[in-house]
Every structure is written in C-alpha cells, then in structure tokens.
Amino acid sequence: MLSGALGKQSLLNRINSSVPLISEYLDLSAQIQQNGFDCTLRQIEVFKTPARIGTDNVDRQLPDTETLFPDTDGYYGLDTGPYLVTLNEIVNIPNNLMALARPRSSLLRSGISIHTAIWDAGYSGRSQCLMVNNTGSKFQIKQDSRILQMVFLYLDSNVQEGYSGIYQHENTG
C-alpha cells in the first residue's frame, strides 16, 4: 500500500494518464512542484447576499455573487474583504486519493489568505475557494496568477463510493 503525499514524478504520471488527475492547467512546467501542483486564478466573484446553512442540504442557501473583471492590464483590484475565486484547473481525484491546498507564500506575505475545503476521493471539477484581503488596503492580483498549492495524499484504502455531492463536476460546463 502506498502512503504519504504524491511527489513530482507521481503527479506527472497521473496528469499524463487516460483520466488526468489535473487538466486545463496553463503551464505544466511552472505549476508542477516537488510536493504538489500550483493552481491558478480563473475568476473572482464578490458576495452580494447573505447565505444560510442548516442541518441538512435542504436548508442550504448559497449567497448570490457578482463576477468581477480585470482591468486592461489583466489585474483585479480587491478591496479588503472576502472573495469567491474559481480555479482554472480541473481535478479528477481517484478513489484512493484526497487533496488539501495551502496558499502560496507570497500571498500570505501580502496579507492575503486562501481558505479551502477538502478535496474528497472521487471529486471531479473546477473548484472554488475563499480569498480574503486582510490588509485594509487595495490588493492587486493578475488573472491566471498561481494562488495555491494543492497536495495529493494517499488514503489507507480505496473508498467504496467517491464524492457525489452537489459540487461534483462544478464549473466544468
């Protein structure tokens, strides 16, 4: 049984397989890392209405959002606060892996945080994350910038049934 995180060569093997672990990436040589894969910024949205989460999915009410657009140089100007960001990359997590992601250190050093959920075994889609400008001033970020590093971890055994929630195949149409 394999254990631990996938290294660069294992990631490359899975990216180049018949069902790629990661697709829709922009520059494989720049994004592949020794211990993970750098994901890039596709879209930014601002929250416009309140959300509501109950004890089951029937009570879930996600907020309305509004898509922001970069300036003519390709930069977004983000005021202090939270933003919903969509990644360029599509991931296809097999039933023996899961993934976690952390922000790139330059974002942290700039006062910007990225929050993610866990990527479950069996999930496939173009994910969204929460980006927060914590600085008290405007932050500029360019379209397609690398914003987080995703790390893929082996599970101790294959899951019998992979992820089947409402976010399966999100943002792929």
Give an overview in words.
The strands form 3 sheets. Strands 2, 3, 5, 7, 8, 10 and 12 form a 7-stranded antiparallel β-sheet that branches. A 3-stranded antiparallel β-sheet has the order 1-6-9, with no helix packed on it. The longest helix has 8 residues, at 8-15. The model has no long low-confidence stretch (mean pLDDT 97). The radius of gyration is 17 Å and the shape is globular. The protein is built from 3 helices and 12 strands. It has helices at 8-15, 28-31, 105-109; strands spanning 22-23, 37-47, 65-67, 75-78, 81-87, 90-92, 97-103, 112-115, 124-125, 128-133, 139-142, 146-154. It has a single domain (8-154), classed as Deoxyuridine 5'-Triphosphate Nucleotidohydrolase, Chain A (Distorted Sandwich). The termini are far apart. 24% of the residues are buried. Helix content is 10%, strand content 36%. By secondary structure, the protein is mainly beta.
Strand content: 35-45%
Structural class: mainly beta
Total number of helical segments? 3
Which oligomeric form is depicted? single chain
SSE sequence, one letter per element: HEHEEEEEEHEEEEE
Mean pLDDT figure:
97
Please outline the major beta sheet: 7 strands, antiparallel
- Here the CATH topology equals Deoxyuridine 5'-Triphosphate Nucleotidohydrolase, Chain A
Computed over alpha carbons, the radius of gyration is 17 Å
